[in-house]
Structure formats: C-alpha cells, structure tokens
C-alpha cells in the first residue's frame, strides 16, 4: 500500500492532532466497502478527524488503499471475528473478544479514541458497551438517543430511550431527562432545552403509575438540571416545536422511532407514485426537482443517522445497519461533534450533580409524595 | 320545521327500512354544525341510512332544518348535557346521564340503532360504553381498532388496541388478535387475515415476558381463529404488505398512532413548504395538482376517520375530536358498513368459539408451556 499524497483527501494535521474516532468496519448490511466509503467522505469534508478502523486487516488495507490519501488518516486494527445481526447479545458477551465490534469499543475504553461508531447489531453493541465501558455512576439504565426531524429552529428533537432497555422506572426516566437535556445542549446548541415525557394524553391523571411518578420527579429537578419541563407530550408532539427532548422507555421509543421512519417512507413512496402517474405530473416533478430534493434532504433518515448511547463511561454512536456511505458519514460527523464539544465530560458532570444531596433529597421527597 | 321534499338528499326507504346509526352531535371540537354537515353528506351519498341524533333539540332541529330533506331521515333526541374533552371518565360515569353521549349509547343498548358514532372524549366514551353495553362474554379488556394506510391491496391495515386500556396481558392480546381478524374479515373483506404482534424486533427472544407468552398463544389459536399468524412485527411494519392486523397494548398503540399521524402531517407540511419555495415549483405544483390531490386523499386522516370499539355488546365508532364534515361522514360510512355486514354478531361468535373447550385447552397448555 502506498500512502501517497492525495489531492482529494486532506491529511490530518501531521496525522497526530484532531479528534480520533474508532470505527467498526464490519456488521453493517452493506459490508466494509460502504463503511470505508463513509470514512473517506468524512475525511474529505473534515481535516480534523483521524480514524482507528477495526476489521480484517488485509481487506481493510485494500479498501482504504484504493482511496488516495486515506491510509495516512487511518490506523487499521486487525479483528477477524464479526458480530452478525443474528448473534444474541449474551453470546457476544461470552465469545465476542476478537470481533471488530469488541475491538472498536476497546479503543474508547483505553483512551485512544474519543467516540466509537458501529453499524452492527444494536443489542450486542449495547451489551458490549456496558460490559467494557461500564455504566456512569448514578445511571441504572443507559439509553439510546436519536434525532427526530422537527418544526423547531434547530431542525431536530431528541428522543430517548429508543431501544437500549425495554423497561424504565421513574428514576430511569429522570436520568433520561438529564442525559437528553445534556445531549440537546451539546449536540444541538440549546442553552435550556424543553423536556417532555411521552404519554397517551397530556392530562395529569393519564398513563401508567411510573409515568405519574416520573412527572413529579422531572418537574422538581428541572431547575437544578437547567432544563424546562413542559409535562406530558403525545406521539404527535415528537416533531413539535413545543418540546426539544422527549423522554420515554425503550420499548415505546423503539416502536415510535420505527413507526415514524415507516410512515415517512410510506408517504415518500406514495409521493413517487403520484408523480409517476401521468406525463403531466412527470413533467411537473422535473420542474419541482430542486424543491423535491430539498424535501428529501429534510426527511432523509440517512442524514440524521446515528443513535447515541448515553450513560456509559464513553460515547458510542450506533449507525443504521443498512447505512450507506452517506449514512456512515453522517454518523461520523455526529461522533466528531460530540467528541469536540467535550460532551461526555459534561454529561457525566450533569448526572453526578443530580446525585448531590440537595437534588437527591428533592427527588426522594417527591417520590414519597406520589407513591 | 318543514320536512320538505328534497332534491339533494334522498329520503330513506319510507324512513323506516335500512340501517339506523345513532350519532352524538356534541363533544367534537367543531360543535354540532360540523356533525350535522357530516350527517347530511352521508345521507346524500347513501339512501339506506337513517339517523338518531342526540343533543339539544332546538339547536339540532334548526341545523337539520337548514338541510333540505334531512329532517325526514333524522330522529332527534333531546339531551341538554355535554361531555367535554376535559371531563374525567369517572365523573361521566357518575353524572353522565342526560348527556348526548349517554343518550347515543343508549340507542344501541335498547336496539333502536345498530352502531353508535361520537367524536367526543375517548376515555369517557369507552367508560360509558363499558358501563351501558357491558363487555362481551370472554373479553377482559375491550380494544379500540384503527385503520392504517398500507401497501396492501386493501389499502389499509388494522391496528389494535390504540388506547382503550394502557395495559394488556397475554390473554388480552390473544383476544385482540381474534377481534382484529374478525374486523379485517368484515370491514376489509379479507378471508384469512394475517396477524402480527408488535415488538421491538422480530426475533423470538425479544420483548417483554407477556409478549413471548402471547406469541405462543396466538400462534396456537391461528387455525381455529381462521387467521394466519406472521409472528412479531416492528413499528416499520405498520403500513407493511406482509401483515393485515397488528396487535399491541393500548399504550404502545396510542403512541404509534399519534406518531404516525404526526409524521405524515410533518412530511405534508414540508412538502407544502418545498412547493411554495419558488415560482418554478409553484408552477410545478399547479401542474401536479391532480397527482398531489390523489396523494392527499391517500394519506388524509379524515378519510379513514373512525376507531372502532371492539369487545362490547354493541359497536361504537369513535371519530376524531377535530373531525369536520368529511371526517364525520367517513366515520358514519364505516358504521354503516359494519352494521350491514352483521359484524357484531360475527365477532361475538368468534370470541365465543375461542372459549370452546378445545381452544381453551390449547391455550391453557401453551400458557403452561411457556410460563
């Protein structure tokens, strides 16, 4: 391989400085070629990122070698094993050492990289992340946060948990509120995010017992957590401009996320059908191309690709399993932003603060009051 | 009031035969004028429907009198009280006698009408329906079923429960499968509907304990229930062509329903923005008008307006609170179809059959096997 001078991909500042992202090249539906293509796209756009890439070295060296100048930005770590979409998390925990996913997390664990990116099996990635990075002090259940296209000026709302754990009690939901607000502050630049709790109605008497309890807990922690609490929100509020962070358990959040994606895709397909319907409408589509492209960009899930694992000693970005180069590049961009903002340290401080005697006392009092 | 001969609204067959629908004129966001407009629209399209309309008689007589020929098709029942969106179900149960909602249900209870339609407060409507109509033998938790735009030839999938009860155990989910399949057979004309159980993954090991149990129960009842069981489905499958009926608890179903509606509305608004963006794209939109109208019709929630309460001694159609004339008319059309197909008797027979010793034995064995 010849790490030749490239005209297309700028070399990092002497390949030393900048932000280091650890990338799992395996486990995605489109294989390592798509991941390397995504890395190349990111490298081209941003000279400050360097990569540690994990997978079968010979294959990766070849793929990276085909992109001029990319080899100088990448450190390839040989890992023969691959975690497949079918592997159960428990199996991966027992036998996963030697896989590219394990190796990817390890680079964050030992401090070589700031953030890890993988498009592999979500359950296995969360299980491995919990085993190797461990939970942050004060966090019982880590969460996966995603970005949701919205009517807000920032263009996106944060929703969590979208699938780390199918259960969440009132205390977990409070932790999600704190972590989600921290993510919105650092990832979306909102000084004082507005947090809502997902329910089947906005009235106080609605919903499950743990939601009523969480409602009180979150309300009483809002000031200390530097966020505004807007109360219960409904499924229709996920893209709403009246909230920035939506808190829910991982079962409900996962169903909502996939329902939203499925609906957007359905409407998109119907739109294509409608425009393919007659010569006149095909001509109209041609005229409207720029507008339609703008619309597509706004709702394209590839451009907001990347769930973030929150509540661990290290940040992990989970990319869609089916992500292509554009999707991988979006996930890497998110990882870079979080690394650069010092997000992890800020979030850890926020959770630790919420455990301070004053807030813990408040939370305890509320819990007693409603139970 | 002069029930004059009308040129626009055909009179029912001597105002005697046909199907009788009981309609609550109050409780909707747009007031009784919108409901009467919806009744008029339905009356115009379908000569076989007669109406019993519930609300303040003087006001309703006036509204109905303004529509030529409508008075001859309507029997107005005076009810001064109105259930508001803010009323708690428990209050309505205690003090609801004399409201238009109570009176509407009463017409189904005493056999004057086959199906009830209301756009009032969902919680109160379900509570009143349970109190006055009572649950079908064998049904522990009634459910609300909705239609979901889909890629299937019939254009819609059925999802239940979308909000009757925030809880559902394995046996409830089995009942939902039987009732949902019956609804798909009678409402959508599918001889052997395909039923799926909503979960956060399609693998058998995923999800909550009650879902694994329901998975076994539904699988073993499919043949006796004359449906095919496709196993676990995800949020993205709600509009899918691989399933016709999606079974879930009322909390998850309600969040999914509102998320889907919210997403479709967001994409629609983005689309409008995109087309309003330049002179060129405005012109394109003009050219594509027919196609866009067709698209709008396909995803317009007003045209699939009407959740159906299943598992009671009588059928109740819940229309959107914000429904306009088009929405009310769609809900009445659905009520008419269900009344005409003898849906209620068929569903009752199906649930009773599932309690036959053979199936009950099967279900019991499965329950034991998995617990």
UniProtKB/TrEMBL annotation, chains A, B:
Keyword set includes Lipid biosynthesis: yes
Pathway: Lipid metabolism; phospholipid metabolism
EC top class, as a word: transferase
UniProt key word Zinc-finger: no
Gene3D superfamilies, alphabetized: Isopropylmalate Dehydrogenase
Role this protein plays: Catalyzes the reversible formation of acyl-phosphate (acyl-PO(4)) from acyl-[acyl-carrier-protein] (acyl-ACP). This enzyme utilizes acyl-ACP as fatty acyl donor, but not acyl-CoA.
NCBIfam families linked: plsX
Name recorded for this polypeptide: Phosphate acyltransferase
Lineage of origin: Bacteria, Pseudomonadati, Pseudomonadota, Alphaproteobacteria, Rhodobacterales
């Amino acid at each position: 391989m010849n790490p030749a001078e490239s005209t297309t991909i700028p070399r990092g500042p002497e390949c030393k400085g900048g932000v280091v992202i650890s990338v799992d090249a395996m486990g995605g539906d489109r294989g390592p070629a798509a991941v390397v293509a995504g890395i190349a796209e990111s490298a081209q756009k941003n000279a400050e990122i360097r990569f540690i890439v994990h997978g079968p070295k010979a294959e990766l060296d070849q793929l990276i070698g085909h992109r001029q100048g990319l080899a100088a930005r990448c450190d390839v770590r040989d890992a023969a094993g691959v975690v497949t979409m079918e592997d159960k998390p428990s199996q991966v925990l027992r036998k996963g050492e030697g896989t590219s996913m394990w190796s990817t997390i390890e680079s964050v664990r030992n401090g070589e990289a700031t953030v890890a990116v993988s498009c592999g099996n979500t359950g296995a990635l969360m299980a491995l992340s919990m085993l190797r990075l461990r939970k942050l002090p004060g966090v019982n259940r880590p969460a996966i946060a995603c970005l949701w296209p919205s009517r807000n000026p920032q263009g996106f709302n944060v929703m969590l948990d979208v699938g780390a754990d199918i259960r969440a009690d009132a205390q977990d939901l409070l932790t999600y509120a704190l972590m989600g607000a921290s993510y919105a502050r650092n990832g979306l630049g909102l000084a004082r995010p507005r947090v809502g709790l997902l329910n089947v109605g906005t009235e106080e008497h609605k919903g499950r017992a743990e939601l009523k309890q969480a409602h009180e807990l979150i309300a009483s922690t809002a000031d200390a957590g530097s966020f505004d609490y807007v109360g219960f929100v409904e499924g229709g509020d996920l893209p709403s401009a009246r909230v920035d962070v939506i808190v829910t358990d991982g079962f409900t959040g996962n169903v909502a996320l996939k329902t939203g994606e499925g609906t957007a895709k359905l409407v998109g397909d119907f739109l294509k059908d409608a425009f393919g319907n007659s010569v006149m409408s095909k001509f109209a589509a041609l005229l409207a191309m720029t507008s339609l492209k703008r619309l597509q960009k706004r709702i394209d899930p590839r451009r907001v690709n990347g769930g973030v694992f929150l509540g661990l000693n290290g940040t992990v970005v989970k990319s869609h399993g089916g992500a292509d180069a554009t999707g991988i590049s979006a996930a890497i961009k998110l990882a870079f932003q979080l690394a650069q903002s010092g997000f992890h340290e800020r979030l850890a401080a926020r959770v630790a603060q919420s455990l301070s005697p004053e807030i813990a006392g408040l939370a305890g009092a509320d819990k007693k009051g409603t139970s």
